[in-house]
Automatic annotation (TrEMBL):
Pathway: Carbohydrate metabolism; galactose metabolism. It comes from Papilio machaon. This is Galactose mutarotase. InterPro entries: Aldose_1/G6P_1-epimerase, G6P_1-epimerase, Gal_mutarotase_sf_dom, GH-type_carb-bd. Mutarotase that catalyzes the interconversion of beta-D-galactose and alpha-D-galactose during galactose metabolism. Beta-D-galactose is metabolized in the liver into glucose 1-phosphate, the primary metabolic fuel, by the action of four enzymes that constitute the Leloir pathway: GALM, GALK1 (galactokinase), GALT (galactose-1-phosphate uridylyltransferase) and GALE (UDP-galactose-4'-epimerase). Involved in the maintenance of the equilibrium between the beta- and alpha-anomers of galactose, therefore ensuring a sufficient supply of the alpha-anomer for GALK1.
Length: 261
């Protein structure tokens, strides 16, 4: 398998989105030639290890998994191009990717499934539409799903993130203790790994590229994960530079909380 198989959506005006078919990982999103996503300089593109950065696709498990790799197999599987990039009447560009069960997935997770992943590149927006289908008439399955988005930022300590006020969160830096977020905006000044439950449908991140704001809008994704390894854990990640943590923040929309209030 060519580890560098990519599909590029090009809207013109130096606005592009690049998808690596390994994991259907969005590895670049440029708006007027300004990169919006963080990819580690030490990311490995060998078609084996999950790509460190961009937008990895987490399915069917978030976090540690007894039956397969952390965060599931979707981000380390070879996806299919269902529809090559095509310009719509609006001028936007659409592409569709898909993943179905095969020997590789069934060796870990014995269910039939089909995922569709539709991307639409707009002038200043990137839209995702995800479908999870179960073709089996006998077996039902439950799954977790999340877009593990790495946003590029000049200095994470200057970012503020809205949309979590009043939400309960699982703090993985404190052995999974559950707290309620009392802050109007979330800031990051230390190792952060939190699963916020039942978050608002919109988050705004301040001070991203060129000091701008990034708006995240989500539907049917009730949870939001905030992650930054900070200096102490950056050193433990082999495909992540020791000094890269200030230049990224993961704000990840998904459906991953095990228990819902």
């Amino acid at each position: 398998m060519a580890a560098t198989s990519v599909v590029v959506l090009d809207r013109g005006n130096n606005t592009t989105c690049t998808v690596n078919l390994f994991g259907a990982t969005v590895v670049s999103w440029r708006v007027n030639n300004q990169e919006q996503l963080f990819v580690s300089k030490q990311a490995v593109f060998d078609g084996k290890r999950a790509i460190r950065g961009g937008i990895p696709f987490v399915f069917p498990q978030f976090g540690q998994w007894a039956f397969g790799p952390q965060h599931g197999f979707a981000r380390v599987a070879r996806w299919h191009v269902e529809k090559l990039p095509e310009r719509l009447a609006s001028g936007d560009v659409e592409a569709i990717f898909s993943l179905m069960d095969d020997d590789f997935t069934r060796s870990m997770w014995h269910f039939q499934f089909r995922l569709t992943y539709r991307l639409i590149l707009r002038e200043k927006e990137l839209h995702f539409n995800i479908g999870v289908y179960n073709p089996s008439k006998e077996l039902t399955f439950s799954c977790q799903l999340l877009l593990h988005t790495y946003f590029k930022v000049p200095d994470v300590r200057r970012c503020q993130i809205t949309g979590m006020h009043g939400c309960m969160f699982i703090d993985k830096t404190r052995e999974g203790a559950v707290y309620q977020e009392t802050r109007e905006v979330v800031t990051i000044n230390e190792w952060t790994d939190r699963i916020y439950q039942n978050t608002m449908q919109e988050h705004i991140i301040t001070n991203v590229v060129s000091g701008r704001k990034m708006r995240i809008q989500k539907y049917n994704f009730p949870d939001t994960v905030i992650w930054n390894p900070w200096s102490e854990f950056a050193k433990e990640i082999g495909d992540f530079g020791d000094d890269e943590f200030p230049n990224m923040v993961c704000v990840e929309a998904g459906r991953v909380a095990a228990r819902r209030p």
